[in-house]
Amino acid sequence: MGDDSEWLKLPVDQKCEHKLWKARLNGYEESLKIFQKIRDEKSPEWSKFLGLIKKFVTDSNAVVQLKGLEAALVYVENAHVAGKTTGEVVSGVVSKVFNQPKAKAKELGIEICLMYIEIEKGETVQEELLKGLDNKNPKIIVACIETLRKALSEFGSKIILLKPIIKVLPKLFESRDKGVRDEAKLIAVEIYRWIRDVLRPPLQNINSVQLKELEEEWVKLPTGAPKPTRFLRSQQELQAKLEQQQSAGGDAEGGGDDGDEVPQIDAYELLEAVEILSKLPKDFYDKIEAKKWQERKEALEAVEVLVKNPKLEAGDYADLVKALKKVVGKDTNVMLVALAAKCLTGLAVGLRKKFGQYAGHVVPTILEKFKEKKPQVVQALQEAIDAIFLTTTLQNISEDVLAVMDNKNPTIKQQTSLFIARSFRHCTASTLPKSLLKPFCAGLLKHINDSAPEVRDAAFEALGTALKVVGEKAVNPFLVDVDKLKLDRIKECSEKVELVHGKKAGLAAEKKEFKPVPGRTASSGAAGDKDTKDISVPKPGPLKKAPATKAGGPPKKGKPSAPGGAGSAGNKNKKGLETKEIVEPELSIEVCEEKASAVLPATCIQLLDSSNWKERLACMEEFQKAVELMDRTEMPCQALVRMLAKKPGWKETNFQVMQMKLHIVALIAQKGNFSKTSAQIVLDGLVDKIGDVKCGNNAKEAMTAIAEACMLPWTAEQVMSMAFSQKNPKNQSETLNWLSNAIKEFGFSGLNVKAFISNVKTALAATNPAVRTSAITLLGVMFLYVGPSLRMFFEDEKPALLSQIDAEFEKMQGQSPPAPTRGISKHSTSGTDEGEDGDEPDDGGNDVVDLLPRTEISDKITSELVSKIGDKNWKIRKEGLDEVAGIINEAKFIQPNIGELPTALKGRLNDSNKILVQQTLTILQQLAVAMGPNIKQHVKNLGIPIITVLGDSKNNVRAAALATVNAWAEQTGMKEWLEGEDLSEELKRENPFLRQELLGWLAEKLPTLRSTPTDLILCVPHLYSCLEDRNGDVRKKAQDALPFFMMHLGYEKMAKATGKLKPTSKDQVLAMLEKAKANMPAKPAAPAKATSKPMGGSAPAKFQPASGPVEDSVSSTVELKPDPKKAKALGVSSKAKSAQGKKVPSKTSLKEDEDKSGPIFIVVPNGKEQRIKDEKGLKVLKWNFTTPRDEYIEQLKTQMSSCVAKWLQDEMFHSDFQHHNKALAVMVDHLESEKEGVIGCLDLILKWLTLRFFDTNTSVLMKALEYLKLLFTLLSEEEYHLTENEASSFIPYLILKVGEPKDVIRKDVRAILNRMCLVYPASKMFPFIMEGTKSKNSKQRAECLEELGCLVESYGMNVCQPTPGKALKEIAIHIGDRDNTVRNAALNTIVTVYNVHGDQVFKLIGTLSEKDMSMLEERIKRSAKRPSAAPIKQIEEKPQRTQSISSNANMLRKGPAEDMSSKLNQARSMSGHPEAAQMVRREFQLDLDEIENDNGTVQCEMPELVQHKLDDIFEPVLIPEPKIRAVSPHFDDMHSNTASTINFIISQVASGDINTSIQALTQIDEVLRQEDKAEAMSGHIDQFLIATFMQLRLIYNTHMADEKLEKDEIIKLYSCIIGNMISLFQIESLAREASTGVLKDLMHGLITLMLDSRIEDLEEGQQVIRSVNLLVVKVLEKSDQTNILSALLVLLQDSLLATASSPKFSELVMKCLWRMVRLLPDTINSINLDRILLDIHIFMKVFPKEKLKQCKSEFPIRTLKTLLHTLCKLKGPKILDHLTMIDNKNESELEAHLCRMMKHSMDQSGSKSDKETEKGASRIDEKSSKAKVNDFLAEIFKKIGSKENTKEGLAELYEYKKKYSDADIEPFLKNSSQFFQSYVERGLRVIEMEREGKGRIPSSTGISSQVEVTCVPAPTSTVSSIGNTNGEEVGPSVYLERLKILRQRCGLDNTKQEDRPPLTSLLSKPAVPTVASSTDMLHSKLSQLRESREQHQHSDLDSNQSHSSGTMTTSSSSTANIDDLKKRLERIKSSRK
Question: How far apart are CA 1551 and CA 1644, in angstroms?
Fold first, then answer.
């Protein structure tokens, strides 16, 4: 026992873990005792056992385990911490207890599980038990099921989740173990007890026997609702209560409670979703459109079967719904309509909420289809619409339903009302708010007066249901005008209604409601009337007020006294009740006469139609008296007006009688109960008389009276339609004028904007100007109420008209609509309760928005569009987005139903391409504006993802997202955003950008809200984590937002929420909360919208406390605080406001006017300097941001407070843009009078204006720019210079606006930039504008580039900062921009520089891509040829700018003096000789030195040469008279004349305008077709071909893609081009002039054209392609063979290199090469083989054999081999002599390949016998040779073979041969290659020539290699410097260049090809001719030189190859050139002097 005693001493917890079972048993027993003793559930003792409880239950010893289980049960029951052990203990129980054989163990295990459930751990327990069901041991499974069953039985289905159990039931029924099956049956019965038939569907598929057994059991169950018998700890009190109730016998409430529990589980939830879209018949969509109804029926039946599945999988059902909707709406077969309706029902039932997005499409269609009478159709439609209603909310479909309520068909009205009634049953008081109830009640009230009884009954039922749902209090205000009978009927219906959600809510409401009613009815008349008046206006404004009034029941009939605020005559108020609408049947004329005679004197009735006007007048007077005396109730209005309308009625000729008549109508309308029926009788007559000069006013008065009686909206609509159905323009214009006035008097509520707009449009199109003017005036009035959105309807009007409308709107801008004085005044209750006014403006606004006609765009959101938006290719996605933007723009205002668009756009918000993200955000902004408040329903699925974008790393994307969120919030209000967890989820993301932007946004929005949803508390934990975020900005934003969270949630809730924080964090956060508590602003009082920012000018005067001193102290304390949101004074001010807000009399407004008298800008000495110092010393924020944050605005406010008048500052920082407009107007007025003040505050003014640039309101922006123009004009007059600080904080923001989409704004900004150059140096402006070119906004880039061009043009190159080179390189980058306007702007800017600076531009811009360079050169060429008007404009502008510069000292310091002087000289010369200046300035400004220095008045000899009439181009050619030469001895007039004209025409060939191009081509074609004239084209061929292929490129890239262009035009242009080229290439002499580069590009263009699939699709396309084929053949045959062959080789090389190039392209190039190879035998002698072989060498260098073999096609290598083989065959071994142009032959395999070929051909040709004799001979030689000689020769050949000593070796061999002429070197050569032999021979010949002093190298060598150049004797050395680019000596090329430039400047082109001086570069080493493209030729001005050189070479070589001797020595030719050039240059100089 010794060991026993050991464990006995151990503490309890150690005993429990002991390895001895006894010890453990003892430990468990002791534990049990301890547990039973502990009374405090939170005692620390419990925690000691936390880790042991699992061991208690899983003990391996069965006996011990039992004791452990007992102890564990007690522990779980009593310990506070037990919950922590749930998972492990329950899992232990499942695995180790439930498998025990002892029943006691199992019972305890189950008890423990149930106890855990009781301590609120049900979910964990259930999870573990469900895991246990997967165990292999059936015992465990049975025990788990049993536990679940007991838990369900005791705790009920609210605690135990049934869904997961039901899911596993079928599996349990299939178990092999009977015990499991039986237990499953028991639990199924238990579940059935709780949820009844909901259980049936999931168990449908189990074994039928089992199902039958279950059914039997289910039947036995009691029918009463089950109740839980055991409660969670938190519910124990409830249990106690329940017991008390049961003992008292009251079970009602419990019953109610349990009523809630039964439908806890929804059968739907338990079902598996079925996917049906893929199972639709493949031909469904065809069949559904089929003509035979049977086919359509088949299609629908297929769908019907599918939709019977009770739960459908979500998917894109849009097409299916659209098809079914079409059947319901359009199908003529009613049976099919019913079937389609059933399908829709099935879809709605199966999809539930997922069907919601389609509901809007379908509801109107179904409602309108209710016109069908057949009961089965009606029933199907009813079922469908009811099912659909459950998938959406009443709010979402309210618009559609309300629209159908006005339908004329009674069945539709009836069914709609019934549907509304059924829908209301599903609503609760919260889901049926007043805003929704009001329009429905208004519609239903019309229906209860309907003539059809069924419509009335349905309306009563609907109103009764509404009454039941929301209670009387909410509905009564709408039923004020309903008479007693009808009211009783509604109440009766209400009692019969049974609501879906149980009656509890309704009953309770009713109990409460009915008590006060009796008292209410007797309440004061005034209040009653007030209510009446409010409610009778059908608009949302007043219903907010109805409940607020303390007395509001239906007032008694009588004459209530007038309300205080109405201020109208008594007679108006009498109609308080009847205003709603007096319905009166139309009476026959007899009845009317009878009624009238009862109230009118008999004489009066007799004289009505007397022929004597005086009698009629007397009769009218009597009539009037009678009416005046009549009592309201007795007046038969209809009868009286009928009498007035009786003959002569409105055709009355006497104006006095007529005036009386009209006056009487007005009286009747005012005094009687005037109905619409009566109104219709008279209105026509009134409208007819409204234009009458004498009676017009009376008519208007009568109309106004009628409008008061029958409501303005109805009257206006009637009057407008009558006026516009007649032709009298006077009537129309006067009607419009009356309406303008009436709207001001009555207010805008209820008016039908749609109807007006169509009438106004008619009026705007009227021919009569008075009608148009009236219409515009009416629009101005409407603008006051509707706001800027009104303009959207008139955007398609003519610009002139639109500008008038804009002007009218501009006048109205900033005005607020007048308070209505007539009708039911909306403000009649101004002083009643604060709660009312607050929301009123909003409601009014929304009301107007609701009136706007909205377009349905869902049909445009096709699935193709949606898939486009989701495409992989971003360009296609962009197209999709562009389309969406287009759709929304076009629709202006849209209905909320936008189909699949939200999901598509949501996807784009996280697009990888940020441009698309921004575009999506822009679209979402448009969407918010277009959809208006209806956008609410998209907040969750689209709004929240926008918030996610706030976390983007790119600043501009965040700014766009913020703007979008604000645009949405403006439409939706904040409630939608704050509800639910979405916002807190966003805040939870640890993205610093997202957090700071979101918190900033909340800090801005929360203070303006009066209440927030409770879900705001969910954001608090994340707000706290933001307070400790590692990012400083996030912390700052979180601190800023803290007070506003507290303002809504209260300090207590916020402090409580810190409970979950770590202790350290908690302390910090609590400290911040304390701090925030002190600064916590009060919630905004009802009427003051901007209480949160009391100082920013947003609180109107009446809110400031009345007492003077307090007011001052408050305003000043707040004023000086930089952060008004936290200013402590705020508390005071807000209290003061709430206390005294209402009582402030007009004193304050008076005071305000006094304030406005002083100066607006106060001059503070050194204020500006101090501010600059502060900014430099970083005491304040530097003015630098992407979007202005609050702290910048606050800082500016603070800085301004000292130097800007308080009232102006309030306007400047007001939240409403109209106040900004006022501030700007004031600033404009004071600009002249307060110059000093303006300059003193200039930095602040400019900063404030930058803030305005970020406003979205265009009118403010326009005003700001207007002000800036005036400001800078003033500053330049004052000779003020902007400081760096002012410039840097203003110019970048101004430049942002240069990219605005509106032209006017861009123009203004450019004008301001222009003026700024007068107060700020242009050279400093330059970098700012340069920075602007980096923007992402293409318009901004383009405008900035243009502005840079203007600066350079005006101020010369010195403005380019930091250096002209860097600046131009930056500008040149934009030539490759993807936006066309930017490219053009960049090109124009560089052309401007070129015009100022000439060719130096090319050096400065550095290397450009080939494409960019060609664009630039083309543009320069065009600008040079275009006789532009620009210089004249500059002449006008220049002097001004120049003077301003000279007056500006700052500028003079910056720019060097010589620049200035030349500028002034220029200005002088221009003002003296405008024409000369125009010619001179551009042409000679930066040319040769002689010309530049001579800048006196320069008169050019031949200005007239540039202007030609095209008709007489060729006259000089025909008649070369000597007289012409006499006129101008120095130039070949005739030629230059023609040449410059041809240049001009050619430049037009490349025009972007098709017609211009065609005309130019036609002219050239005329020339080419006439042999005698064709000669004129010589020398212009390259130029013409370049223009042609540029045009081809333009067609390919631009015209073909342009959908607006007629394709016939393009075909026409193609045929002109091809025709021209064919003509050209038939003239061989001209065809040969085309150079390689040009031919390469031409062939590229033609082959691309042949492959253009777009052309094949055109009608004439095939013909074009055939013509191109023909042309290509011509080009190949007729061009210079060397050039074309070279071009094709380079083209092939390029096409193989280019990855983008198609294999087909390369194939066609090779086909051309094959054709050339076939031509070779005929042309070989005319080809410059050296050049061809050089090209092949380059080709093989780029494509070695290995690389060529890798090509997909074997054609390239075969083509090359064929070409080389043919050349070898034709030239034989001599081919190896033509490798002279190749520098390093080892770089390619060409030489080796040729040698192999030669060898092969030699092998094949030589006969065997020859070879043998040769061999023999060599043997004999060898024998006879002497060793010495052999050695000597071997040495020599070794030298020749080595690279270094080759020359020496050749020289020695030459010497040796000379010495031993008979020496035989044949054996040494025999073994070497053919090439080596020819090399030695050639080398010897060369040395021989040198030694003999021959000047020329034999012709076969072609162009000499470098080795030979060095050996050329001295005479040529002077010439060799020609090619010397360093220009040590002046060579002829320089002269030629200068000559060329001079000739070009004078409008002469250079001489013909033949006349050009041949300048050969044979002696300078020729560069490898680059044939990359024609752009290289254009690259330099020497292009034509190089070409002539080439031609000369070729002709030289050709002549040599045809064995003619080369007589002309290079030196002589060159010297001749130089002399010739010098003479020409002299001639030009003398002509200028």
Answer: 20
CA-only gyration radius of the chain, Å: 49
Any idea what DSSP says for residue 1142?
Answer: T
Question: What pLDDT digit, counting tens, does each position of 1382-1415 carry?
Answer: 999 998 998 888 888 788 788 888 888 888 888 8
Mapped onto helix, strand or coil, the DSSP state of residue 577 is coil
Q: CB atoms < 10 A from the CB of 375, how many?
A: 9
Question: What are the structure tokens assigned to 1419, written together?
Answer: 């543009």
DSSP letter string, 1688-1731: HHHHHHHHHH-SSS-HHHHHHHHHHHHHHHHHHHHHGGGS-HHH
Q: Which of 785-789, 902-906, 1508-1512, 1733-1737 has the lowest mean pLDDT?
A: 1508-1512
**Are the C-beta atoms of residues 1289 and 1184 closer than 8 Å to each other?**
yes
What does pTM read for this prediction? Answer: 0.32
- Quick one: how far is CA 797 from the chain centroid? 26
Give the separation between CA 1368 and CA 1386, rounded to whole angstroms: 10
- Calculate the dihedral angle through the C-alpha atoms of 836, 837, 842, 847, rounding to the nearest 10 degrees: 70
Mean pLDDT of 163-172: 87
pLDDT at position 1823, please? 44
Residue type (1 letter), 1383: R
Number of neighbours of residue 291 by Cβ within 10 angstroms? 6
Four-CA torsion 358, 362, 364, 367, nearest 10 degrees: -140
Residue 1278: Cβ within 10 Å count = 13
- Asked if residue 1836 lies in contact with residue 1852, where contact means CB atoms within 8 angstroms, the answer is yes
Distances (CA, A) of 152 to 123, 162, 256, 462: 13, 9, 20, 41
Q: Which whole number is the average pLDDT over 1210-1236?
A: 88
User: Can you read off the two tokens belonging to residue 303?
Assistant: 């769908």
- What is the residue-wise DSSP string for 825-879? -TTTTTTS-HHHHHHHHHHHHHHHHHHS--B--GGGS-HHHHHHHT-SSHHHHHH
Mean pLDDT over 1760-1766 rounds to 83
323 close to 300: Cβ distance less than 8 angstroms: no
The per-residue pLDDT for 1831 is: 74
Residue of 1388, 1401, 1398 whose CA lies nearest to 1360: 1401
Give the three-class secondary structure for 801.
helix
Chain centre to alpha carbon of residue 1899? 70
**Confidence band (pLDDT; 50, 70, 90) for 505?**
very low
Q: Supply the pLDDT for residue 626.
A: 85
Which helix (DSSP H) or strand (DSSP E) does residue 1159 occupy?
Answer: none
Q: Let me know: does 1008 contact 1027? Beta carbons within 8 Å.
A: no
Q: Which of 770, 620, 763 is nearest to 695 (CA)?
A: 620
User: Distance (Å, rounded) from C-alpha 406 to C-alpha 422?
Assistant: 19
Predicted confidence (pLDDT) per residue in 237-250, tens digit: 766 777 777 666 54
> What DSSP character marks residue 1204?
B
Residues 975 and 1008 sit within 8 Å (Cβ to Cβ): no
Q: Report yes or no: 1221 and 814 within 8 Å, Cβ to Cβ.
A: yes
Among residues 278, 375, 284, 274, the alpha carbon closest in space to that of 322 is found at: 284
Angle at 598 between CA 594 and CA 603, to 5 degrees: 95
DSSP-based helix, strand, coil % in the chain, nearest 5 = 75, 0, 25
1204 DSSP β-pair partners? 1161
Q: Which of 201, 195, 110, 185 is nearest to 157 (CA)?
A: 195
Whole-angstrom distance, CA of residue 1001 vs CA of residue 1741: 64
Count CB-CB contacts under 10 A for residue 866: 20
Two structure tokens written together for 100: 């025990």
The partner residues of 894 in beta bridges, in order of sequence, read 855
pLDDT of res. 745: 86
Contacts of 1389 (CB under 8 A, 6+ apart): 1345, 1346, 1348, 1349, 1352, 1371
State the Cα angle at 870 between 864 and 872, rounded to 5°. Answer: 110
